[in-house]
Design goal:
By secondary structure, the chain is α/β, with parallel strands linked by helices. The protein contains 15 helices and 13 strands. Strands 3-2-1-4-5-6-7 form a seven-stranded parallel β-sheet, with helices on both faces. It has a six-stranded parallel β-sheet with strand order 10-9-8-11-12-13, with helices on both faces.
Length: about 350
């Protein structure tokens, strides 16, 4: 079985590395890197840390508007898919690379599978929501991380394509948990002690492109009593510079960090403040309280017992949520058993054999 996997952004590198390990035991993989994330700390470092195979094809798209980026990826991926003629195209998550890879596959009548299918924030103003909904309705196989995702797909009439595999991010975390616990060098470089700092990330357009929203988030970070470590996304840096906003003295801005360092920062922090869907889930899996600076989440499972709190961009709500007492409830095992990647490979192989597509 020959599978093309399409990646382009940080969360996809993490998922693809775990998927690749399972896939390459028996099958052929062709990895395409779209270039959506081209900064080294958002791209190359993940290939190094996670032993992700070097891409067979690099599309080099880079940054542009959503429409331009999606169109450029689609234009550049089509001849690659035609030349490779795979049995499957596999896409991950909800980025422009996800949607463009999906469209490229269906236009060429290549079977398509979507990893992390069925997530819904029900906020159609988010580009990610449009990407994930459209990709789900294009795909032949939908790999769902949770029962909630299965329920969403059933409501959209997609049950016959949907499979509950568990969350591939849990696979990755389980594989690296021991290394993360021992990884304290990043704390030393940031000059913080375990449990005595907050970790913040902001990158979604709804926050970075809205001056008032970004100003409120920065004010809230400045009102926290502890140091805030802030690995700054390039989009956020440009937004702050354009708006003239400056981080408060307690906010330590650092460059984006790799996967293992980010997990270590999350694991040892007092709480995580973020608009990232992936970090909400990672914090939950690590047992770190989370404050989501959005009004909705595609991971409602993380809200149980207050482990994750939706604070929007209201200053008082953010501060109150960040300084709340640590939740005491158990975190339920809602993300599977850490063996989702192999289930996905087995489902691809099973479907291929029924279509007579195996080599």
């Amino acid at each position: 079985m020959k599978v093309v996997t399409v990646v382009g952004a940080r969360p996809q590198f993490i998922k693809a590395a775990t998927f690749s390990k399972a896939l390459r035991k028996q099958h052929t993989e062709v990895l395409i890197h779209t270039g959506q994330h081209y900064d080294r700390e958002l791209s190359d470092v993940f290939f190094e840390e996670l032993d992700l195979p070097e891409p067979a094809h690099e599309l080099g798209v880079g940054s542009s508007s959503h429409a331009q980026q999606t169109a450029q990826i689609l234009e550049r991926i089509e001849p690659v898919l035609e030349a490779e003629a795979p049995d499957w195209v596999v896409v991950f998550g909800d980025t422009n690379s996800t949607l463009a890879g999906a469209l490229g596959a269906i236009k060429l009548d290549i079977s398509l599978a979507h990893v992390e299918a069925g997530l819904r924030s029900f906020n159609r103003s988010m580009p990610e929501e449009a990407n994930r909904v459209l990709t789900d309705h294009c795909a032949d196989l939908l790999f769902c991380p949770t029962k909630t995702a299965m329920t969403h797909l059933a409501a959209e009439g997609l049950s016959d394509r949907a499979h509950l595999t568990g969350d591939i991010m849990l696979d990755s975390l389980d594989q690296h948990r021991a290394a993360v616990e021992a990884r304290t060098g990043i704390l030393e470089r940031c000059e913080v002690e375990p449990g005595a700092y907050y970790l913040a990330t902001v990158h979604r357009a709804a926050n970075t492109d809205d001056h008032a929203a970004l100003a409120r988030i920065m004010e809230a970070l400045g009102r926290l009593e502890l140091t805030v470590i802030f690995p700054m996304h390039p989009r956020t840096r440009l937004a702050l510079e354009a708006s003239g906003l400056k981080p408060a003295p307690n906010v330590t801005v650092i460059e984006p960090v790799g996967y293992l360092d980010m997990l270590a920062l999350q694991s040892h922090s007092r709480a995580v403040l973020t608009d990232s869907g992936g970090m909400q889930k990672e914090a939950f899996l690590l047992g770190t309280p989370c404050v989501t600076v959005r009004d909705e989440t595609e991971w409602p499972e993380t809200l149980v017992d207050g482990w994750n709190v939706l604070a929007g961009t209201d200053v008082d709500r953010i501060v109150e949520a960040a300084t709340r007492s640590r939740p005491t409830g158990d975190r339920p095992d809602v993300f599977g058993d850490g063996r989702s990647a192999q289930r996905m490979v087995d489902l691809l192989q099973h479907d291929s054999s029924h279509r007579g597509r195996l080599d």
